[in-house]
Every structure is written in structure tokens, then in C-alpha cells.
Design a protein that fits this description.
Layout: E1 7-8, E2 21-24, H1 28-32, H2 34-41, E3 52-56, H3 62-70, E4 75-80, E5 85-90, E6 93-98, H4 103-111, E7 117-120, E8 129-130, E9 135-136, H5 141-152, H6 160-173, E10 180-183, H7 190-205, H8 207-216, E11 222-225, H9 233-243, E12 251-253, E13 258-262, E14 279-283, H10 287-310, H11 316-320, H12 323-337, H13 348-360, H14 368-371, H15 375-383, H16 400-418, H17 433-447, H18 454-466, H19 473-489, H20 491-495
Parallel strand pairs: 1-5, 2-3, 2-7, 3-6, 4-12, 7-10, 13-14
Antiparallel strand pairs: 4-5, 8-9, 11-13
The chain binds nicotinamide-adenine-dinucleotide.
Nicotinamide-adenine-dinucleotide binds next to helix 1.
């Protein structure tokens, strides 16, 4: 790795850092978010024991492992605001273990005496939870294989849950203290979900282990926020030309950086809240912040993705410059905002304005295709809950116009599920296994959209995608109307 001038490098002594934190899922987001807080904290007095060690569970993570090891575990973060940019080298990671090659080493790291916290970004799919029921997906081959391995004491595990349960089992047997598992994925109540999944898996193995985890392992909820696009070859070239930095896998992000963390760390924690680079709030209850973000940021990504891709857009900031999309998103946020309660320290109107500015940032060059990744899970988690009867606080209600705004992206998503040669590339399914199973109900809703069974078919679709609470008669009727308009007159008419 070559450093250029104008590039900030770690100010602490990397030799003295110990890995008190393990991260599972060293992807781009982790490197642009949690690593900044950890890297900043390592310059604080008494923080040498709060460095990072990384774990990759997927065979494809070998590429990240190889690049990072080649660079002495350092990488470049290129932060691009609308009027500001900075390039910094992050040095908080000291090792990377690839689970499929070295499962025992993963367990050793998770059980090491110095490991107090395990953070993770494993994507929604990595939890193996059916988000409509909240239950562990025991039918998934990786889960059943891990249950077998846990029962037989084999270390050849496949899921993050399996490794966490195995680590807890070893800690319990060694009478070692518990640890903190801090999910950093975009999931509502991510800590509670991780806890439920880990406990369900542990319970299948040994009820005593389940009880030990309940008592000794903490699962704080956390809300993460920073847009981090996938790294392109152009980014690498531009970084070298502009800053003289040669990096095999740099990461680009916007300037905005927020982390709201439930303060549940019985064995101590680093002072991430002292970071000069971003805002980290340790709070008692993360839920109100999560709801604001899920409904007025994550869901807005989903609201943007399918309508914009049907219009032929491929890049997020270009779609934002299209007034048809921009105006729709304002209407979408006004509707979804009805379901959001006030939170301390963040104003809803300002938040919405900042979100539209962040999406319009041309420097980030986020692609719409990326936003579509795993869309079926993401729409179910972020957008669909706004459609439940109990989503609005007492005294407020969602009009049919509000419902139409929230359902517009769902109608466009159905169109994308129907597929066909004329579908723009950006609207195609992206690593969306669950989407494949939705093609049947989507096809039926689309087919029947202009007939007498339209509302019934839409209701069936809503039921399979989002469950009973969303599949209400009014919601189904509005969705059927939107599908009819989309089918008959196209996406532009629907947006109008
Ligand atoms: P990425 O593709 O760069 O990295 C994905 C990481 O997840 C990889 O390390 C991979 O090994 C791991 N992973 C994938 N499937 C897994 C599984 N089944 N089990 C265990 N690990 C698995 O993606 P990213 O941009 O780093 O995003 C990762 C997650 O971060 C997202 O799913 C989201 O929850 C969260 N996030 C991302 C952003 C963003 O803008 N990119 C913003 C907020 C939150």
C-alpha cells in the first residue's frame, strides 16, 4: 500500500493495540462505519485494548482477507461530502480469519479472554430469521447443518449464529465471562433479533446453554447510518491519480456518520461517543431512533429503487435530479412520516431534508441495482410496517393518498418481479432469493390488476410478502388501483 500526501494515517501506535473486539462480516459498510469510531477511539488514552480482529464467514470473503493481509490489515476510507472530501488510512484491524478455512481459529478469537465485544454486519440474510414470524429458519440447510455440528461438538459451522452459540458453549464450559454481541445490520431491534435467533438455536442444542446465554451475553440494539456504496475499479484508479494511494480495496462513503447504541456493556466499552468524525450516541432505548431511520431513510431507498429503475435510471443521484422522482420521494416521506414519533435530538423535518440531500450527493455514485439487493427482505422490514393499522400514533391516520404513496414502490417492485425482456437492467432482482418465491403471487396480482379479482390478488400478494397485518382490505384495494394504473399507463402516470 502506498500513501500519498494529504492523506491522514493512524495517529496511535498500531503495535500496542490489542483486539478487544471481533467483527463478523468485514464488508464495505463495516469499514466505513464502525471502523471509524474504533480507529478514532484508539487515539484516546487507555483505549489500546479496543482494537479489531475480523472474521469472514463466506468463502467469497477470501478476497477481502487477501487484500487486507497484503496491506498489513490497513485500508483507505475516502469520505465524499457534497462540498468536502477526506482520505484516511484506517489501521484498527490486526487480523482477518476466514471461517471456512479456519473454523477453530474463529472460535479461539470469539472465546479469547481479551474479546469483550463481537460486532457484526452479516446482512439481513445472515440472521436466518423469518422476519414475518420472528422465528429461526430451521429449514435452511446452513442452520440444520449448524445444529448438527453444535450437537456433535464439531467446529465446522456455517452461520454467525452457529459460531456465537459454539463460542458461548465454550465460554460456559470454561467458566469464562460472557460477551456483548452488537449487531450493526439494518434491522429493526437488531439486538433483540440476534438474541432471539441465538437463543432459539442454543435452545435446540441444550436448555442449560440457552439459560447461560440469557444471563451472560448482552445484545444491545444499535442503529447505524452511513451510505456506503460498493467499491468500483474507477474509485481505485481515481484514488491513485488524485491522492497517490494504491489500495487493493478502498472504501468510499458519504460524510454523514451516525451510530446510536443501547448502553449495555457490563464489562466496559470504548468511548466511541468521543469520536470527532461522527456522532455516536449511547442511549437507553434505540427503538425510536430506529423507527425514524428505517421509515425515513432505509424505506426511502426502497421507495426510490424500483420506480427510478423502471424510469431507466441506474445511479441514485441522477434519479434524484429527476423531478418526477424527487417530488414523489417528498410525498412518500410525508406519508411515511405520519408513522414516526418525535425523538430527542433529531428533528423529523430536518432529517427528511438531509436524507434528500444525502441521496442527491453525486460523489457517492450509489447504484440503484445495489439498493435492490435482497429487496424482498428489505421492503418487508423497512417499508411494509408503515402499512399496518397500528403503525400510526393515536390521533393520526393514513389517508388513501398516503397509502398510495407508500404502495407505489410496492407496485413497481411487483412489476420487477414479473420480469420480462423489456425490464431495465437496474430493475432486475439482485441477490434476492426470497424474491424468486414471490414471482408467483406477483404474476397473479399483475395479471388480474385490470379485472374483477384485482383486490383479491393484491391481498394475496401482500399476505405472502408481508403477512396478515399488512394484507388489509383498504391496502389491497389501493395496491390494486396502483397496479392497474402502472400496467395501463406506465410508471410516469403512476408517479404523477
Ligand atoms: P458488503 O457486500 O460489502 O459486505 C457484506 C458482508 O456481509 C460480507 O462481509 C459478507 O461476508 C457478509 N455476509 C453476507 N452474507 C452473510 C451470511 N449469510 N452470513 C454471514 N455473513 C454474511 O455489504 P455492506 O455494504 O458492507 O453491507 C452489509 C450490511 O451492512 C447490510 O446488509 C446492512 O445491514 C448494513 N448497512 C449497510 C449500509 C450501506 O450503505 N452499505 C448502510 C447501513 C447498514
Amino acid at each position: 500500500m502506498r500513501f500519498g500526501e494529504k492523506v491522514t494515517c493512524p495517529k496511535y501506535d498500531r503495535e500496542k493495540v490489542e483486539p478487544g473486539i471481533v467483527h463478523i462480516g468485514v464488508g464495505n459498510f463495516h469499514r466505513a462505519h464502525q471502523c471509524v469510531f474504533v480507529d478514532d477511539s484508539l487515539s484516546l488514552p487507555g483505549h489500546e485494548s479496543w482494537g479489531y480482529r475480523g472474521i469472514g464467514l463466506m468463502p467469497a470473503d477470501a478476497k477481502m482477507r487477501d487484500v487486507l493481509k497484503e496491506q498489513d490489515m490497513m485500508f483507505t476510507l475516502w469520505q465524499k461530502g457534497t462540498s468536502f472530501e477526506s482520505v484516511r488510512v484506517i489501521g484498527c484491524h490486526s487480523d482477518f480469519i476466514l471461517a471456512p478455512e479456519s473454523p477453530e481459529k474463529v472460535l479461539d478469537a470469539l472465546c479469547a479472554a481479551e474479546t469483550k465485544i463481537v460486532t457484526m454486519t452479516i446482512t439481513e440474510k445472515g440472521y436466518f430469521v423469518d422476519f414475518t414470524t420472528g422465528k429461526l429458519d430451521s429449514s435452511a440447510p446452513a442452520v440444520s447443518s449448524d445444529l448438527e455440528a453444535l450437537k456433535s461438538g464439531s467446529a465446522s459451522l456455517k452461520t454467525a449464529l452457529g459460531y456465537l452459540v459454539a463460542a458461548a458453549k465454550r465460554r460456559q464450559a470454561e467458566k469464562a465471562p460472557g460477551f456483548v454481541i452488537l449487531s450493526c445490520d439494518n434491522l429493526q431491534e437488531n439486538g433483540c433479533k440476534a438474541k432471539a435467533a441465538v437463543l432459539e438455536m442454543a435452545g435446540e442444542v441444550d436448555s442449560g446453554l440457552k439459560a447461560w446465554i440469557s444471563e451472560n451475553v448482552q445484545f444491545p440494539n444499535s442503529m447505524v447510518d452511513r451510505i456506503t456504496p460498493a467499491t468500483t475499479e474507477e474509485v481505485k484508479t481515481e484514488l491513485k491519480e488524485k491522492y497517490g494511494v494504491e489500495d487493493g480495496w478502498p472504501v468510499v462513503s458519504e460524510e454523514f456518520l451516525l451510530w446510536v447504541v443501547e448502553d449495555k456493556f457490563p464489562s466496559g466499552r470504548p468511548s466511541w461517543d468521543k469520536s470527532p468524525s461522527g456522532k455516536c450516541l449511547f442511549v437507553e432505548d434505540v427503538l425510536p431512533y430506529e423507527l425514524l431511520k428505517l421509515r425515513l431513510l432505509n424505506a426511502v431507498h426502497q421507495a426510490l429503487a424500483y420506480p427510478a429503475s423502471l424510469l431507466g435510471h441506474e445511479v441514485v443521484h441522477e434519479a434524484m435530479a429527476d423531478s418526477r422522482v424527487f417530488k414523489f420521494l417528498k410525498a412518500y416521506m410525508a406519508a411515511a412520516g405520519q408513522t414516526v414519533r418525535p425523538v430527542k435530538g433529531l428533528k423529523k423535518d430536518e432529517w427528511s431534508k438531509t436524507v434528500l440531500e444525502r441521496f442527491s450527493n453525486p460523489a457517492v455514485r450509489d447504484t440503484i441495482f445495489r439498493l435492490n439487493e435482497d429487496a424482498t427482505n428489505r421492503i418487508a422490514v423497512a417499508l411494509a410496517p408503515c402499512l399496518q393499522e397500528d403503525a400510526v400514533p393515536p390521533g393520526r391516520s393514513l389517508s388513501r393518498k398516503h397509502l398510495a404513496a407508500i404502495l407505489l414502490p410496492v407496485a413497481c417492485w411487483i412489476r420487477a418481479l414479473v420480469g420480462g425482456a423489456e425490464l431495465p437492467a437496474a430493475a432486475k432482482l439482485n441477490r434476492d432469493d426470497k424474491g424468486e418465491s414471490m414471482r408467483g403471487p406477483a404474476g397473479e396480482a399483475w395479471e388480474k390488476a385490470d379485472g374483477s379479482e384485482a383486490a383479491e390478488a393484491s391481498k394475496k400478494f401482500l399476505h405472502s410478502a408481508f403477512g396478515e397485518k399488512v394484507a388489509r382490505d383498504t391496502v389491497a384495494e389501493v395496491l390494486a388501483e396502483s397496479l392497474k394504473l402502472l400496467k395501463g399507463e406506465g410508471v410516469e402516470a403512476l408517479l404523477r
